[in-house]
Amino acid sequence: MPMRWWPLLNEIWVLFRKDLLQELRSKAALNAIFLFALVTLTAVSYSIGSFNVAPDMLAALLWIVIVFSGLSAFAHIFLKEEEAQTADTLKLIARPTTIFLAKWAFNVLLLTLMLLFTVPLFIGAFNFTVYHPGLLILTLLLGDIGLATAGTIIAVLIARAARRGALFSVLSFPVLLPVMIIAISATKIAFRADPTDLFISEITAMLSFDIVLLTASLLLFEFIWND
Amino acid sequence: MLLETQHISKRYNRKSILKDISFTARPGHAVALTGFNGSGKTTLIKILTHIIRPDEGGVRYHLSGTILRTEEVKQHIGLVGPYLQLYQELTAFENLQFAARLRQVPHAEKRIGELAEEVGLSAHLNKRVHAFSSGMQQRLKYLFAILSKPEFLFIDEPRSNLDSAGVAWVYHLLEKYKQDRVVVFATNDEQDLTYADEVVAVAK
N or C, where is chain A less crowded by C-beta within 10 Å? Predict the structure, then answer.
């Protein structure tokens, strides 16, 4: 049977719009992610002080701020449905694939907003030159997609688990680690004045990881959601 | 149009909740599920509506001469139950519009207006659900369930949180729906049971 794209896209949009409307009214995830980003960034910039930090170290620090801020908000996306007892309502009226894609799109948006806020502040706080801004934007975009995908699939696992607690950080660490390592490596290149030959392999690795993770998450989601 | 359940069993932590439940519901033959608290009525309703899976047995939905596939079933189901909540941050209208768009209800705004008028919620459509009383939320849950005119309607505790006017409206709905749709409801109320054509006792 041929895939009918329009109803699928429409369903994703309706679900995404619902999450957006809820978030604009409660601001729960927005507050969490922005406050966490601000606090982490302040802590990092104060602890480093006026030391002259190498681009390699800056790249690692930037991604630590991004990943930890993201972790504070990702779990919220499915947890709120379980806690408000709307998960079964959602199960009855929407397909698992569209639910996953709408939640994933919402997490991508949330992380993008956080990046737009955090990255300029980070560059300003450490007062350094980004030699290849285009490469940095591409790295941030692919890292954003990878983190949001990992965050969304782990979020549903946590929401379905009886004992949630600190599970999110524990479970997401092994999934997020490859994204972090490649993103840090690509960001180092964007921060340096050197030639950018190595960048292609880093970007290819990030893109491949994003595609594999998104495909695997889409295939796994229905089993986790309906279990 | 037919709902057929065959030998449904369910266990939680090795404890049997449902054992070998079979019945058939069709238009003109509404089924009531009864049983003491904790007997598994809600679990059975969740199995019937594909929210959870049985350990044994199955549920078949027959519509227009074919058996519906699992992914098709949800488009034809309406469910009202205390465990199904609406979105508290959204208005009543936004909740109904959300359901209408996902179920592709034609002329949704007109239908929402008509239904809201019927249950006395017209003046409250633009209020957020968290400001609703439990009775108003229950009425809204009914609207959410019947908005797309589902062929299969499931109700867990039909009178829950409703005043006498609300109960009268629900009985009118049961009477109307059971004529040409499949209706299954879970209750222990004697008056509710008068609307059933078959009573299935759910016991462990």
Answer: N
Query: What are chain B's domains?
Result: 2-201 (3.40.50.300)
List, in sequence order, every residue forming a beta bridge with B91; answer none if it has no partner: B128
Kindly state whether B102 is in contact with chain A, defined as any CB-CB distance less than 8 angstroms: yes
Secondary structure of residue B75 in the 3-state scheme = helix
Q: Cβ distance A134 to A108 under 8 Å? A: no
Whether the CB-CB separation of B27 and B1 falls below 8 Å is answered with yes
Among chain B residues, CA nearest to A91: B51
Surface-to-core class of residue A53, CB atoms within 10 Å of its CB (0-12 exposed, 13-18 middle, 19+ buried): middle
Number of domains in chain A: 1
The answer to whether A93 contacts B74, with C-beta atoms less than 8 Å apart, is yes
Q: Beta strand pairing status for B198-201 and B31-34?
A: parallel
CA dist., res. A22 & res. A64, Å (int): 28
Q: What is the pLDDT of residues A106-153, one digit of tens each?
A: 999 999 999 999 999 999 988 888 999 999 999 999 999 999 999 999
Collect all residues of chain A within an 8 Å Cβ-Cβ radius of residue B89: 21-22, 25-26
A66: containing domain: 5-225
Q: pLDDT of A7-43, one tens digit each?
A: 899 999 999 999 999 999 998 888 989 998 999 999 9
